[in-house]
Amino acid sequence: MTALMGPEHHSLLFYKEVPGSRAVRCGYEVSWNGTALMGILNITPDSFSDGGRIEDADCALSCVHAMSASGALIVDVGGESTRPGAQPVPEVEEAKRVLPVIERLAAETEVLISIDTSKPRVAREALRLGAHLVNDVTGLKNPQMIEVCAEAGVPAVAMHMQGNPHSMQQNPRYHDVVGEVESFLLTQAESALASGLPSVLIDPGLGFGKTIEHNLTLLRELRRLSRFDYPVLVGGSRKRMIEQWAGRSEPSNRDFGSVALHLFAASKGAAMVRVHDVAGHAQAFNVWEVLRG
Ligand code: HH2
C-alpha cells in the first residue's frame, strides 16, 4: 500500500528561529516530504569507517559545504566514537574536538547542525555556539540532557541502545526486540515533550546492543515505529550488517549497501536517514521519489 501513496510529510518544531524554518503559531517549523538526509561529520580519530578523516575546522567546513550542496538537511557533528568496544572520551577532549567546528559551521553555513553527544555540558555549549538539535545515543535518559534541550528550545533525537558502546555487542538479548525498542522510545519521547522539548525524533539504534537478526527485524517492522507522530531516524550507514549481507569487509566500501538499506527504511516510513555518502544517497532518493510519484 505504502508504495502507492505519495511521499509522507514530516516536520520538526523549534522554539527559536533556525535556517530554513517558517514561523508557525507556537515556534518555527522545518518540514519536508519523504526522507531527509542527515550527513555524518565525525571529528574523531577512531570512528569505525571515517576516523581521522577530518583534520581541522577548514576541512570540516568544506566537507559540510559539499554535503549541503548534495542535499543534506542536517549535519550531525560528533566527537566521540560509539562503535562497539569504544572507550569513553573525556568531556574536555570531546568539547575541544567539536565546539570550534560547530562555531564555524553556524557562522559560515545555512545547514541545520546536530550535535551527536550524550554529555549535557557538551550539548549546552554546542547549542550556545549555534547547533540546532541534539542527537543523544543514550536516548535522553539523563534528565540534564532534557533540561539543556528544553532551555534552548530545540528538538532532540532519542535513540535506543541496550548497554553501552564498550560492551553492548557482547550478548544482546530481547524477548521482543521491536516491542521493547518501541516502548522505550515512546516513553522517552513523551517525557521529553512533557518537559518542554518542541519535537522529538525517535531512532531504533541499529547496531547498538543488537545482533544482525535484531537489526533485520527492526528494519522489517519499522512501520510499527513510524505509525506514531514522531519522525523516525534510521542510521545503518556502513554498519556491520552490510558486511554480512553484501560481503564488504572494508567499511568505506559499504555505501551501495547503505543506500539499499536506507531506501528500504524509507519505504517503511523513515523520515530521515543518517549517512556518510550524502551525494550517493541523494541521487538514489531523488530517483526513487520520482518513480513512486
Ligand atoms: N550511529 C552512530 C553514531 N550516532 N546516532 C543515531 N541517532 N543513530 C545511529 O544509528 C548512530 C548515531 C555510529 O556511526 P558512526 O558515527 O559512523 O561511527 P562512530 O560511532 O564510530 O563515530
Shape: globular
- Radius of gyration computed on alpha carbons: 18 Å
- Provide the helix percentage: 25-40%
The overall number of domains is: 1
CATH third-tier fold name = TIM Barrel
Unreliable segments of 5+ consecutive residues: none
Task: Give the spatial strand order of the biggest sheet.
Answer: 9-8-7-6-5-4-11-10
Query: Averaging pLDDT over every residue, what do you get?
Result: 94
Bound molecules: 6-hydroxymethylpterin-diphosphate
The strand count comes to 11
The CATH level-2 architecture is identified as: Alpha-Beta Barrel
Q: What does this molecule look like?
A:
This protein is of the alpha/beta class and 293 residues long. The chain has one domain (9-292): Alpha-Beta Barrel (TIM Barrel). It is 40% helix and 17% strand. The protein is built from 10 helices and 11 strands. It has helices at residues 57-70, 91-108, 120-128, 143-152, 177-194, 212-220, 223-226, 240-246, 255-267, 278-292, and strands at residues 9-14, 22-24, 27-33, 36-42, 74-78, 112-116, 133-136, 156-159, 200-203, 233-234, 272-275. It has an 8-stranded parallel sheet with strand order 9-8-7-6-5-4-11-10. Helix 3 (120-128) links the parallel strand 6 and strand 7. The radius of gyration is 18 Å and the shape is globular. Residues 40, 42, 44, 47-49, 78, 81-83, 116, 135, 137, 157, 159, 203, 205-206, 233, 235, 274 line the site of 6-hydroxymethylpterin-diphosphate. The site of 6-hydroxymethylpterin-diphosphate has 21 residues, from strand 4 and strand 8.
